[in-house]
Write a structure and sequence with these properties.
single chain; alpha+beta; five-stranded mixed β-sheet; 2 helices; 5 strands; 27% helix
Length: 94
């Protein structure tokens, strides 16, 4: 299983997709008032339904928690993930 990594130059968290030709799932963000605003999540269509979006979301939330940061959810996918995983309430604001 791949690990989620931050790519600040592209302003996105990336999850390399095992067994693909270098494809990634990505969660795009912007930095605002010291927090990360999650604005969009993308999983390549051919990998839809395989749980990669949830794996990406969990990796993003865990990374932000490890940094002691906060996220603001402006992405509908991240919002619905959080609704199913309220254990991340300590890092979600707004």
């Amino acid at each position: 299983m791949s690990k989620v990594v931050d790519n600040p130059a592209q302003k996105r968290f990336e999850l390399p997709i095992d067994g693909s030709d270098g494809e990634i799932a990505a969660a795009y963000y912007r930095v605002e008032d010291g927090g990360l605003v999650l604005v969009h999540t993308e999983v390549p269509y051919q990998f839809s339904g395989e749980g990669l979006g949830s794996q990406l979301a969990r990796g993003v939330f865990d990374e932000v928690r490890a940094r002691g940061g906060k996220v603001i959810l402006r992405c509908s996918f991240m919002g619905s993930f959080y609704a199913r995983h309220p254990e991340y309430s300590d890092i979600v604001s707004g």
